[in-house]
Design a protein that fits this description.
The complex is a heterodimer of chains A (about 240) and B (about 220).
Chain A: E1 9-20, E2 23-34, E3 38-42, H1 49-56, E4 64-69, E5 72-73, H2 78-82, E6 85-88, H3 100-110, H4 116-126, H5 142-153, E7 160-164, H6 172-187, E8 191-196, H7 199-205, E9 208-213, E10 216-222, H8 228-241
Parallel strand pairs in A: 3-8, 3-9, 6-7, 7-8
Antiparallel strand pairs in A: 1-2, 1-4, 4-5, 9-10
Helix pairs in contact in A: 3-4, 5-6
Chain B: H1 3-21, H2 23-42, H3 51-70, H4 75-78, H5 82-87, H6 93-123, H7 131-157, H8 162-189, H9 200-222
Helix pairs in contact in B: 1-6, 2-3, 2-6, 3-6, 3-7, 3-8, 6-7, 6-9, 7-8, 7-9, 8-9
The chains are: A alpha/beta (about 240), B mainly alpha (about 220).
């Protein structure tokens, strides 16, 4: 994927619409995101958060609008884009009958990583799962699975990371560990888009905050431009107007 | 990365899981043997059967056991959303199709290594052709079945009643292959020199048509898996 200057938007979403039959899930979402930013999109169930993420991950074609990454149209360069994309969902995307190492090695192989085993072992070390590398994923707790899932999403050293409700089902300890992991990724200058309805967790790590409601992006703010309390009040104000 | 490498990674992953769990292979072989034993009892246990009937019995067992394995082709990918991870990777969706078809072909051949000897043990007395007579038509059935079945399995996987929908879609599509295959196997089991070879060309043509169509249509079906 070609690189762009630091000021140029890395991710550009222009008037993206998505309709399922007669129901519009996204009604013209537009925003830009510079490289290295961590955008957290909040919204209630049915706001269109997961639909937007599926479009950004090329799993779903948009009905209208354009998505550009590093200046290139997503639809025209989807294979090259996917090679530098990482996706984490509330589903683990892991094979429970394979061990942690086998899972990561398999995905590293699919992405044509030069040293699949070495990459897999390094990622397991980072995720604190090295000692459990030969255990089947089926034996992992929800928190361990989520750490392994993030390690899986990093096998190709992605420049854009998409996270769909990554805190779902995690206890407080596992959620704290995930937050630290996400902050580390943010500090590595990766561009991150996370969608969640968990306000507290999203406000902790993001550098930009957005509210998606009824398929529209209602606001997009820098994290420092308002206090968490003010953003929380704004969020609930949007929810009540629904 | 070449398409062949991608296919290799996917096939190795699926076979590794299958060797570990042996879910599909054991159920396919067991069900096929069960069909043969049931039909053997139905025709009078140990009585001679005409070659055409024998061929029909063998193909019924092979088809029914094959459907059992086919239903599991995408089940593992749907668990934990793995299919989404494959589709967001740079892999060509056609590679996923080819890998799944190859895995299914391997499982069918492996289950028939059990089925065919059991068939000859139960029905072989009146049949002039030996084991080798049915190998080629059966192999071609396996290729046609795997290539058409993998595509339809992806279509059916996106529905709630995929195990019901799959045979309803698959068997009519395979009808020409089944008719040609039963005739070819029947002729071969009569022990005629070159018996059944006339059906090999059209059977091979169906294999090519199903494989090419499956490869190119699979990306549309994969979105529904």
């Amino acid at each position: 994927m070609p690189t762009t200057s630091a000021d140029a938007p890395f991710l550009t979403v222009e008037g993206v619409r998505k309709a399922y039959g007669g129901v519009e899930a996204l009604r013209g979402v537009s925003f830009t995101l510079p490289r290295g930013e961590f955008l957290c999109l909040f919204g209630p169930n049915g706001a269109g958060k997961s639909t937007l993420l599926k479009i950004l991950s090329t799993l779903l074609p948009q009905s209208a609008g354009r998505v550009r990454v590093a200046g290139f149209d997503l639809e025209e360069n989807s294979a090259a884009f996917r090679a530098r994309l990482g996706v984490v969902s509330h589903q683990s995307y892991l094979y429970h009958d394979l061990t942690a190492l086998e899972n990561l090695e398999f995905y590293a192989g699919l992405y044509a990583v030069a040293d699949p085993r070495g990459t897999a072992l390094a990622l397991l070390e980072q995720a604190g799962l090295y000692e459990r590398r030969h255990s089947p994923a089926a034996e992992f707790s929800r928190g361990m699975l989520q750490r392994l899932s993030i390690a899986r999403a990093l096998v190709n050293d992605p420049s854009l990371l998409l996270l769909d409700e990554p805190y779902t089902g995690l206890d407080e300890h596992a959620a704290n560990r995930l937050r630290k992991q996400l902050e580390l990724l943010r500090d590595q200058e990766r561009t991150i888009v996370m969608v969640t309805h968990n306000l507290r967790r999203g406000l902790e790590s993001a550098t930009r905050l957005g509210i998606l409601s009824r398929g529209r992006l209602c606001c997009m703010e820098r994290r420092g431009s308002m206090t968490p309390e003010a953003f929380e009040a704004l969020y609930f104000d949007h929810l009540e107007r629904m | 990365m070449t398409t062949l490498n991608q296919i290799g990674f996917l096939v190795r992953k699926d076979l590794r899981i299958e060797l570990r769990k042996r879910e599909s292979l054991i159920s396919m072989a067991f069900f096929g043997v069960l069909v043969l034993v049931t039909l053997s009892i139905a025709v009078g246990g140990g009585r001679r059967v005409p070659p055409e009937t024998g061929a029909g019995i063998l193909w019924v067992a092979a088809l029914f056991s094959g459907v059992l394995g086919l239903g599991r082709v995408f089940a593992r990918e749907r668990e934990n959303g793995c299919v989404a991870a494959l589709l967001v990777s740079p892999m060509n969706p056609g590679s996923l199709y080819a890998a799944k078809a190859l895995v299914n072909l391997t499982l069918m051949v492996a289950s028939q290594i059990v089925l065919v000897p059991v068939f000859f043990a139960l029905f072989g007395q009146g049949l002039a052709g030996g084991l080798a007579a049915v190998v080629l038509p059966l192999l071609l059935l396996d290729v046609a079945f795997s290539s058409a079945g993998t595509l339809l399995s992806a279509v059916a996987a996106g529905t709630r009643r995929n195990e019901v929908l799959l045979p309803i879609l698959l068997f009519p599509l395979l009808l020409p292959v089944v008719v040609l295959g039963v005739k070819a196997s029947g002729a071969a089991l009569q022990g005629k020199a070159g018996g059944g070879l006339g059906a090999v060309e059209p059977l091979a043509a169906f294999c090519v048509i199903y494989s090419v169509a499956g490869y190119f249509l699979f990306p549309f079906a994969a979105r529904e898996v």
